[in-house]
Amino acid sequence: MSIDAAASPANAGAANDVRPLWSVMIPTYNPTPHLREAILSVQAALDRCHASAHVELVDDGSSVDVESMVRAWGLTDVQVHRRPANGGLGPCWNTCIDRAAGTLIHILHQDDLVKPAFYARMTELARDVPTAGMYFCRPEFLDDQGPHIGELEQADAGLIEHWLEKICSAQRVQCSAVVVRRDTYARVGRFEPSLRYVIDWEMWVRIAAATPVAYLPEALAVYRMHASAETRRVKTAGIATRDFAAALGFIGKTLDKASRRDCLASAEKFAVDVSNWTAQEAEAGSNRRAAAREVRASLRYLWRSMGWRYKLRQARWYLRLLLGIPPLRRG
After folding, report:
1. What is the pLDDT, as a whole number, of residue 175?
2. For position 282, what pLDDT does the model report?
3. Contact at 8 Å (CB) between 250 and 203?
4. Residue 11: what pLDDT?
5. For position 234, what pLDDT does the model report?
6. C-alpha to C-alpha distance for 133 and 221, rounded to whole angstroms
């Protein structure tokens, strides 16, 4: 389905194709009360923005009645669309894109938040930098220890220079902090449904290869970190490296089309580094099986991206994990 043909209640039959400025789409699955906090944060931020907006939950086939839950919270001005079956991250996020009515699309996860100034400042940035196809701000991370601010990308608001090189070298963006123009998604396509762990990174690279990207240095979006998050589930399952390898295939094609194959080496290095960190984290958490899966996957899928010493080290590590030999303790 093309984005402009999306069957959204918010844009169906709109006179003269007049769209709201904002579509805030919240994918959800078996939500916790964090969803209520997310919705209330959106409503408070939109109230300060004074712009037309469409807010909708996209329920990915939850086993609970999400609409009844939301109405019981007294939230009657939020639309709820239920997908017929659970499809996972990619299909649900793509339904969000398909149903979005606004010019600016914000996909906010069910347990994340926005600060009160988020939509007002993003509206200003989109107005001031109309050539950008994507906008994002500095994130705030929230875990059991409390909030902490993410790294600063640049001191000033505006376009980011050499963004394609930067985003290829690391995942520098949190979904809650990202706003994408509707016509950008129409240009680059939807999220790749076969990916899970790096589904967002692959999209940000695709967008960076197609359009300028602008940034706000203020921390206006909150990414909640907890054990039930999808990224943590993927990491503990030992399949992150395989997902990276699949993403590199898509990214290589994207960079070929943009005549920027020079950026692929940094993307491959990032994949190898994260594979290593993920395996180390799994082993440190006594999840030897997940660690072995990651190391084995790195040897299978990322072989060409490693130097010979690194390959030898990975092979020794994998053998040690298979034999159940604990790591050497230094000090």
Report:
1. 95
2. 87
3. no
4. 46
5. 56
6. 19
- Is 82 found in the same domain as 195? yes
Phi, psi of 109 (to 5 degrees): -70, 155
DSSP percent split of the chain into helix, strand, coil, nearest 5? 50, 15, 35
| Rounded distance between C-alpha atoms, residue 276 and residue 291, angstroms | 9
pLDDT at position 285 is: 84
pLDDT under 70: residue ranges of the chain: 1-17, 227-238, 328-331
The model carries a pTM of 0.89
Angle at CA of residue 41, ends 180 and 139, nearest 5°: 55
Nearest-5° Cα angle at 104, 219 to 149: 10
314 alpha carbon, distance to own chain's centre: 29
Residue pair 196/234 in contact (Cβ under 8 Å)? The answer is yes
* Domain count for the chain: 2
Neighbouring CB atoms inside 10 A of 145's CB total 8
**Domain-located, residue 331:** no
On whether both 46 and 74 belong to a single domain, the answer is yes
The total of other beta-carbon atoms located within 10 Å of residue 234's CB is 19
- 104 within some domain: yes
Measured between alpha carbons, how far is 30 from 321 in angstroms, rounded to an integer?
A: 36
**CB count, 10 Å around CB of 9?**
12
Measured CA to CA, the distance from residue 164 to residue 206 in angstroms comes to 9
| C-alpha distances out from residue 91 to 11, 17, 274, Å | 21, 26, 25
Domain of 211, CATH number, reads 3.90.550.10
